[in-house]
User: Fold this.
Amino acid sequence: MRRVLDLGTGSGCLLLAALTEFPEAFGIGVDRSPHALAIAAGNAAALGLGGRAAFLCGDWGQALRAGFDIVLGNPPYIETAAIDGLAPEVARFEPRDALDGGADGLAAYRAVMAGLPALLAPYGIAVIELGAGQAAAVSALAAAHGLHVQAQIPDLAGIPRALVLRPGVAK
Assistant:
């Protein structure tokens, strides 16, 4: 059985998509917001996935120490100073904590990368969303924590928007 972890699950969309794709999998979604977790649990129930998903209130994966086959994450990556300049449909309606990546936009990545090696199974894979222009910095953070960047996944404009990570540094 695959075990899936979604860090910063929000509405649960990434976790629930993975559980739909892998019908034998069980998943855990972690978020700091009890409100977001209630929405995610409701979404899981509405999709008939409630028995295969659990939602935990916490700070990234700090309370977890198991080896997950798949770790997903969409950490906040907007620089604090840039949030007020975002499009109104983003800045007004998204929770600030879901957007604010700190002064350089990398604060959440530092926390995620520090804990990710302990969360991944030896053969596991992590897919972490990126902000535009962050691929090199986040790749360096991953490598500093013993993770190998297997691939960068671009958006339709060719901008790297996700990293595929595995345990171990490339040789």
